[in-house]
Structure formats: structure tokens, C-alpha cells
Amino acid sequence: MNPYIMSILMCNLALGAIITAASYHWFLAWVGLELNTLAIIPILAKHHHPRATEAATKYFIIQATASSIILFSSIINAWYTGTWDITQLTTQPAPTMLLIALAMKLGLAPMHFWLPEVMQGTDTTTAFIVATWQKLPP
Predict the structure, then answer these.
(1) How far is CA 60 from CA 5, 36, 118, 125, in A?
(2) Rounded to whole angstroms, how far apart are CA atoms 29 and 16?
(3) pTM, full prediction
(4) Longest distance between any two alpha carbons in the chain, whole Å
(5) In Gene Ontology terms, what is one molecular function of this protein (predicted)?
(6) Mean pLDDT by 10 residues, the chain (138 residues)
(7) Euclidean distance between the first and final Cα of the chain, in Å?
(8) Residues near 61 by Cβ (< 8 Å), separated by ≥ 6?
């Protein structure tokens, strides 16, 4: 992969984490998580091997599902409370759905079955990024 493209993708990873960590608004937190997910997909698939493509596809499907659950949870919370503030998570279905989505994003049990398969399809550096840096924003 071109070093310029790799540096842009790494900067997008850092930017996504910073946006997510610094946001007080549900939509901005979701945007940061999506930026982080979309930046790691080309890094996962940089080796033109079927295992790398499979790992990138599995990662994308799981992360897209978890992101949609986070967005749905924040919409339900905003509907009931009238605000998109992260600290106002008060209605009962919203925190439960958010917990499930964050468990999916982090690879926590019982939603961890995708993580070993993604790790097996990548090289050591990419697996290190997925195991450490990708866990910071959620």
C-alpha cells in the first residue's frame, strides 16, 4: 500500500477516536465511530488474500450492525428525552441497546465470535491495531 494512503488512513483512525472521545452529542460520537471503522477496512484488506478479504468483510458487517444499533438507540433516547446529549441516557430500551452495540464493537463476550476470525485473517500489525486502537473509541 502506498505510504501516503497508509498515513492518511492512520490519521483518520486517530481523528475518529478523537471525535468520538470529545463529543457530547450522540450523532458526533456515531460519526467518529464510523470514521474509525471506514479507515480500518482498507488496512484490513491491504493484503490481496482471500483470508484478508474475508476478515475485512466480517469486520465491516459486525461494525455496521453495531453502529446501526447505536444510532437506533440514540434516536430512541432523543425521541423520549428531546435531547441528543450523551449524558441524558434515561429511557430503558436505549441503555440496553447501547450496551449490546458496544459489546459487539469491542468484541466482548457473548458477542466476541467475530474477533478471532478477523485476527486470523490479518497480519500482526493490523491485528495489533484492531486489538488496541479500535477498542478506545467505544
Answers:
(1) 20, 11, 10, 18
(2) 9
(3) 0.90
(4) 48
(5) NADH dehydrogenase (ubiquinone) activity
(6) 91 94 90 93 91 94 94 91 84 90 91 91 92 88
(7) 28
(8) none
